[in-house]
Structures are given as C-alpha cells and as structure tokens.
Amino acid sequence: MAEALARITKLTDLGMIQIRADLAAAGDAIAAACGVAIPAATAMVAKAPRRLCWMSPDELLLVLPLAEVPEAVVALTAALEGQHALVLDVSDMRSAFGIEGAKAEQVLMKLCPADLAKMPADGMRRTRAAQVACGVWRQGDGFVLIGFRSVSDYLLGLLNGAAQAGTQLDPR
Amino acid sequence: MLTLTCPCCGITAEETELHPGGEAHLKRFGPGSSDGDFEAYLFARKNPKGVHFERWRHAYGCGKWFLAARDTVTLEVFGTYKAQNPHPTPEIVASIRAKRPDWQPDWTETKTSSAESLTE
C-alpha cells in the first residue's frame, strides 16, 4: 500500500491575533509591537517564532506560539491606543493544520481554486478549501492551512481524504 | 468560468471565490425623491447584451468589494477597478474601446469623478 500524499497534523500550539487598522498610518506602531515587519500585500513576514500575515488592505494576522498571545495582545493594544483599530485574540476561533510531505501541494490542489504552485515562499493566500474559507502559507516542505474552528472536523476530513494513498495527481 | 483580478489585493480569483453584487454605479434615491426615481433605484436594472459594469466581492479572500467591466455575451473581462470610483476609470474605458470601438459610455464625466478625489 502506498503512502499517504502528505502527513496531516492538527497544530494545537498556534496562537493568532487579528489586527485591523489603517496599515498606512499604524504600520510602524504595529511592526514595533509585533517585532515583525509589515508584510507586502498577499505576503507574510516570518521571524521565528512569529509570523505576520497580510489578510486584506486593512487587516493583519499575527501568528505566534499560544503562550505569547496575552502579552502580544497587551503590547498591540497599547501601540494602537487612540487609533481606530482592533486587536483581537482569535486563537480559539481558528484551527490550523500542517500538511507536510513532497506531495503536500497536490492535497491542496484538489481542494483550493488557487494556483498554489505559483505562490511564493512568503505568500499568504486566502481562498477556500471545498466549501469553507481558509488561509494557506508555506512552511517547511509543505503548507499550513488555517480555517474556522467550527468547521475543523470538516477540514480534517477533507485534508485526510485528499491525502489518501494512491490519489496523487501525477500520471501513474 | 469567470476569472477576475481583485484590485484591492491583486489576487486573480475565479468565480467561486467571489460573490456577485449586481449592477455597479447605482445612484441612490432616498427620502425626498420622487416615486419614479425611487422605484427605478430599487428595481430598474440594465440587462445589456455586451459591455456591463458589475459589483463583485472577493468573499474568499480580502473581503473587499470591487467593480468589474465585462462582456455579458463573451464573458471577456475588460478590467477591474476600485469600488470608490463613481464611474469606470479612463483606463477601463480605453480598454473597452480597444476591443469594442462602437461602444459609447452612457454616463457624463463630472470634474470630481476621478478616484483620487475620494478617500478610500
């Protein structure tokens, strides 16, 4: 029996903080508070163990170890004091999955209507996986997929199904 | 399959990642307007065979609304532009004219119609 296309793991130590602000005005303050530079559009800046992802023209997502979340929320809230901005701990609202292995891309190619082969190493792509919204970035030899916690069983089923042994997209 | 490039994030998204929002550039007629204007604002929509301007939302992406110019018959996309524009931008008009020389804009340009005059 052939191996699965990729190892699907649920990432449990991933904290996420949603930041909504006018990035042109508050970018420097956010970068200083996060310790990570502001990413360009549809990109992310990784500075282990944190990464700052560009979500939309007025939204960023700071991904960091779960233990650092409360401290980072306080720092960001203080940095954005007095501005029209939002800093929210969304760790419990989201699920993250690791998709590792040489054929990890094929697992996502089956689920997402996005050209992930062309996504740069520092790319952050928001798209959908089958019927639900998700975000994808590259990590190691695979990808990390984030989605909403309420649909995490669905996502896990999708990913495991798409990674089933013998279902690779290359010609046999 | 319709593929549009979101002007807000630059992602080229296909139809299932987008949400349609109907006709673009509607002018609102609210309280104080005549019944005829109000009814037209609510219900009268263009249904052209050819060049059409539409609102789309990048729902499975940056979440922003934007506008697109496309041909309803051939599905050819002439371009996408930000929703803050009160009329299609000169670039969009030029792009349509290049493909459809007979096409005429059905709006009149006003001096304040450039995108720069509006805050985003």
UniProtKB/TrEMBL annotation, chain A:
Pfam families: SoxG (PF04268). SUPFAM superfamilies: Folate-binding domain. InterPro entries: SoxG, TrmE/GcvT-like. This is Sarcosine oxidase subunit gamma.
Automatic annotation (TrEMBL), chain B:
Residues 110-120 have a biased composition (Polar residues). One of its GO terms (biological process) is tetrahydrofolate metabolic process. GO terms for molecular function: sarcosine oxidase activity. This is Sarcosine oxidase subunit delta. It comes from the Bacteria. Residues 98-120 are annotated as: Disordered. Gene3D superfamilies: Folate-binding superfamily.
